[in-house]
Amino acid sequence: MTIAEEDLNLTDTGRDIELDEILKSHIGGKLTVVPSVPLGGARDLSIAYSPGVAEVSRVIADDASKTAEYTWSERLVAVVSDGTAVLGLGDIGPRAALPVMEGKSALFKAFGGLNSIPLVLDTTDVDEIVETLVRLRPSFGAVNLEDVSAPRCFELERRLIEALDCPVMHDDQHGTAIVVLAALRGACATMGRELAGLKTVITGAGAAGVACADILMAAGVTDITVLDSKGILVPGRAGMNSVKADLAERTNPRRLSGAETEALKGADVFIGLSCAKLPEELLATMAPEPMVFALSNPDPEVDPVVAARYAPIVATGRSDFPNQINNVLAFPGIFRGALDAGATRITERMKLAAADAIFSVAQDDLAPNRIVPSPFDPRVAATVAQAVAKAATESS
What we know:
By secondary structure, the protein is an alpha/beta fold. The chain has 2 domains: 1-29 and 173-396, NAD(P)-binding Rossmann-like Domain (Rossmann fold); 30-172, Malic enzyme, N-terminal domain (Rossmann fold, 3-Layer(aba) Sandwich). The protein has helices at residues 5-8, 19-25, 42-48, 53-62, 67-70, 93-112, 126-136, 152-163, 171-191, 207-218, 242-250, 260-264, 280-283, 304-307, 331-340, 348-362, 379-395, and strands spanning 76-81, 115-120, 142-145, 168-170, 199-203, 223-228, 231-232, 269-272, 291-294, 313-316. The longest helix has 21 residues, at 171-191. The radius of gyration is 22 Å and the shape is globular.
């Protein structure tokens, strides 16, 4: 079972767009606020604003729970970044990150039906970010952390979950991991294989790499080897921070050491979440009919056309190749489901439910070049939201 090379490039999306067209589309930003009530005359004005709005404020002052009924706050997602790990651009600062956060907010509305507001913070201090969001908590109902560098992102997410009584999720970690798990389920179903027995290699021990390892272990994958720029994570290896040291203890059951050469021998799955390149000759050392997820974007770890010579299943992070691992399959429905259920946390059970939901949508149309559904499939966000809400209710 293989993908013909001529079938691998399904679209040319993104390659034929001129810079001028991109810049023009961003003039004035990508977001606007539209009133949800009529403002056509004095009566409308008196109801929406003064004096009528004072009555609503009195109701909320008497009972703070009425905020959810009479304002948008409890269903408003704050997309928060400090601009330290933006796309493949790195630490470009909050102002340069703002167009990305605007885009994320636009996706929340288009795919999840949720209002969202981008917040870029001019600090990288975890204490300051936490304090800022705690003070802003009356204004929003959930926090989507975005493009925060590792390892600070782990501490920041943990502390915000502890400090805020609302859903918090770092999408670069968990959105990626959820879609990777859904895609791996789709790949296994396509090839008639079992998830649990896969020897899996993850390159990149940052936000996405750690989260992918965690969710795959939670789903039953037992043989996972993770690499960073210095090689395989193995207990006792020098140059590991506390997050990597912990991951080393929980992964790599065969206690491999060294570099990609050792990790990829006989491996069933490669998941690339770093900018490191994967030499073609190493693909030939993997197990028969491997799965290659070269997810670095815009430049995959290995050319998908080259990877297809060895692997029946090839996935990337790009929209101009099939099997795009796109977080938009996950985060709109996850936050929608969490808010629908009135959840204050996004739990591991809810993340696994989201992955199962994405896979369930893909199930009817699986093929080597279709292991996940299209993000434009209207069933995706609704199915994910329902599954997440159900998981939240069952675990409450």
